[in-house]
Amino acid sequence: TVMHVAAPMRDASGRIVGVLTVAKPNRVIAPFIERSQAVVLRWGIVLLGVALIVGIAAAAWLSRQLGSLRRYAQAVSAGERVILPDTAGEFADLGRALEMMRTQLEGRQYVERYVQTLTHEMKSPLAAIRASAELLEQPMSPEDRARFAGSIRGQSERMAEMIDKLLALADVEHRQRLEAPQPVVIASLLQQVVQATRERLTQRQQRLVVQLEDALLTVSGDAFLLRQAMVNLVDNASDFAPADTDILIEAATRDGAVAVRVCDTGPGVPQYAEGRVFERFYSLPRPDGRSRSSGLGLCFVAEVAQLHGGAARLRNRADGGAEATLELPIG
């Protein structure tokens, strides 16, 4: 086959006077066409590959952004402490909107739940105060008057303690993370616990024995919260331990974490209560007949442990008594 290319020839007036034709066999330009096809095909494959890579990268980025928001939403639904993930563009706007919605909903539900539980827990001491006040209006002996006045004072102190602990617990529960964790030396922390509990234990003729595996054991966290959590564990052990006995507080490394154990020789935890001891407002009767606690101490311990990335446990000891453990990551 032959390829023809023609062009008209015109005179000065523009009239066609002839045609110039150039002809060339196709076999002569076939190599050029083949080379052009190869170039087009090669660059087409390159562009297709680039488009595929860009598409995969974009899909992976979108999937990662959506996946992080999905995991965040699932953690919030499960009631876990979780930090808003780092996202970009409109995903960041969506994440901030979710965080704002979560904060508003949690705040509203939190207030409603606490008002309900606090109202329920206040009924008993208020009823006791009212009954004692009514009896004090009647003639009675000085001994009975002093006894009822003491009951009013005791119930008032119980309500004050409950409100203080509730405020402390609310502060911990609202934190999603530690803002500025600092290195905390366990030995120094235990000395503070000894000082904070000395008067209470002396009144009950109990002794706090400290055992420390390593004087340089250190964790990262909030020293005030950790000290209060350990004080709560010692106070709880003191409530159930008999008079004239030792309460052991021990700190050692275990499975890559620092475990602070508080052991007593009391009656231990009843089987029916083993899964509820860390619940808010759950409290067991004291062996000596004293009134129950606010039921917030161990709940505070569990919240502090979770805030530090650790865990809190309470179990019965094989040789009697209970063992409370606060596990914290090594700092």
Could you walk me through the main structural features you see in this protein, from its secondary elements to its overall organization?
The chain is an alpha+beta fold and 331 residues long. The protein has 3 domains: 2-69; 105-174, Signal transduction histidine kinase, dimerisation/phosphotransfer (DHp) domain (Helix Hairpins), CATH 1.10.287.130; 182-329, 2-Layer Sandwich (Heat Shock Protein 90). Helices cover 54% and strands 19% of the residues. The chain has 6 helices and 9 strands; from the N terminus they run ββαααβαββαββαββ. It has helices spanning 26-77, 90-136, 142-174, 186-203, 223-240, 297-307, and strands at residues 2-10, 16-25, 182-185, 207-212, 218-221, 246-254, 257-263, 311-316, 322-329. The strands form 3 sheets. It has a 5-stranded mixed sheet with strand order 4-6-7-9-8. Helix 1 packs parallel to helix 2 (90-136), helix 3 packs parallel to helix 6 (297-307) and helix 4 runs parallel beside helix 5. The longest helix is centred in the first third of the chain and has 52 residues, at 26-77. The protein starts with a strand and ends with a strand. The mean pLDDT is 80.
